[in-house]
Amino acid sequence: MDRERFEWLVARSVDSLPEEFRTRLENIDVVVEDWPTQYQLAKVGLRYRQTLLGLYQGVPLTKRGGHYGLVPPDKVTIFQKPIEAKCRDDARIMAEIQSVVRHEIAHHFGIGDARLRQLERGEAP
Question: Which of 25, 56, 58, 94 could bridge across to 107 with cysteines, CB 3.0–4.6 Å?
Fold first, then answer.
């Protein structure tokens, strides 16, 4: 898939988030990169060429104090090549992009990986 279409699918996924989340996405950049860097992999405890589909970098809303401000934007990076390698066709790529975008945006709202796994399994808190 070419980069322009992939980026359009990512933007569409962000636009399709429920309004109560979308309206609270302030000072956050969502970008597409081909592959994660070694630094990004190491930061999350992965080794070179292990799979990382997306990455949230920033301070979650739940960790911000009253004096939080004048900071660079939080960043969500969606990695195109690992998603394409995981998915066999465009429909699966689209579904995976939506899943990864929701997952990384959830981190922005302070939801950790363990809780996200619970939510994906439909488990109560």
Answer: 56
What pTM, to 2 d.p., does this model score?
Answer: 0.88
DSSP string, the chain: --HHHHHHHHHHHHHTS-HHHHTT--SEEEEEESS--HHHHHHTT--TT----EEEES--GGG--TT--S-PPEEEEEEHHHHHHH-SSHHHHHHHHHHHHHHHHHHHTT--HHHHHHHHHT---
Q: Which fold has domain 3-121?
A: Zincin-like (3.30.2010)
Q: What is the pLDDT of residues 75-115, one digit of tens each?
A: 999 999 999 999 989 999 999 999 999 999 999 888 887 87
Measured CA to CA, the distance from residue 99 to residue 38 in angstroms comes to 23
Entry field: residues in the chain = 125
* Beta pairing class for 74-79 and 28-33: parallel
Task: Decide if 32 contacts 10 (C-beta within 8 A).
Answer: yes
